[in-house]
Amino acid sequence: MNTTIKDIARLCDVSITTVSRVLNNKTESIGAQTVKKVQHKIDELGFRPNLIARRMITRQSHTVGLVIPDIRNPFFSEFARGVEDHMNNQDYGVFLCNTDSSLEKEKQYMTILQGKLTDGIIFTTQNKLESSKSFDDFIKNKFPIVLVERYLEGIDDVPGIYVDNKGGAADLCRFIISRGHQDIACITGPLQTTNARLRLEGYKEALLEAGIKINEQIIIKGNYRYGSGRDGMKNLLDNNKTKFTAVFACNDMMAFGAFETLEKYGLKVPGDISLAGFDNIPFPEVFRPQITTVDLPAYNMGEKSAEMLMKIIKKEKLSDIRFQYSLDVVDKGSVDFLKV
Questions:
Q1: pLDDT tier at 138 (50, 70, 90 boundaries)?
Q2: Single pTM value for the model
Q3: Cα distance between residue 245 and residue 110, in whole Å
Q4: Is the pLDDT of residue 206 over 70?
Q5: How many CB atoms lie within 10 A of CB 268?
Q6: Is 60 exceeded by the pLDDT of residue 223?
Q7: How would CATH label the architecture of 5-49?
Q8: Could you name the CATH architecture of 165-294?
Q9: How far apart are CA 74 and CA 298, in angstroms?
């Protein structure tokens, strides 16, 4: 026979309401000894409440949606771990949605998450105007949402976790310039996203600040994926009109792809070409040197976004609607002093 909440209440000589409060961590009005006694009995009997029934009563699913563009990118894998670990500590599950950077898949997941009884969403959007329009119902209904890393165009009052993309990119490019480089190529991210645009702006700001003219011929559009770094570097090397001594790939996945192409062309990093990335994701240990990059605290960002979402779900006041991390350059030896 299955143990019920009534059984726990009878065995502990307390009310059903008291047991319910202990199960839901709402014990402010209950004595410490009573809480301890009830929790001990719950653990002793291995009691687990009927989640479906509890959800119907409380209208909460104890599940949140996590929408990310590319689970294959180690940054998002680590970020998802941070979200999941924090949510598990809150007795919440995480429904993972991988959009493959597709606006259509993003819209589909938004529809699914609205239809399912999720209590909130942590969201990395494609950041096109269409994404902003799709959020109208969520915002109108005050549905708990936390944005991550990418702003929504025309929407300023949605809570979010961000990093200083422009400042981080500018600092990294200043570091490259300080090593004597003037001809610095750039492989951008997908420019429909704010973080990609900001990283490109940071690159240009650092060059102009140093009196270096922007050369659009050595700015190659990428999409944050390994293949676009590989192909972008091939494009740069095959174009005999371009001259460059260093490359800033706007994320590490593209930097890894660029590294592969340089090796195929028999070029050494940093001896022939200096190379830098952005994100500080783990680079395979067999490669030397490691890639100089900008450190994004992926796991911590996941924890912070989950913490923020839980406060919104619990209707607690946020100290700040937007939390932004400052970023540091991590020199791993892939940017050499330019030999003149």
A1: confident
A2: 0.80
A3: 44
A4: yes
A5: 11
A6: yes
A7: Orthogonal Bundle (1.10)
A8: 3-Layer(aba) Sandwich (3.40)
A9: 9
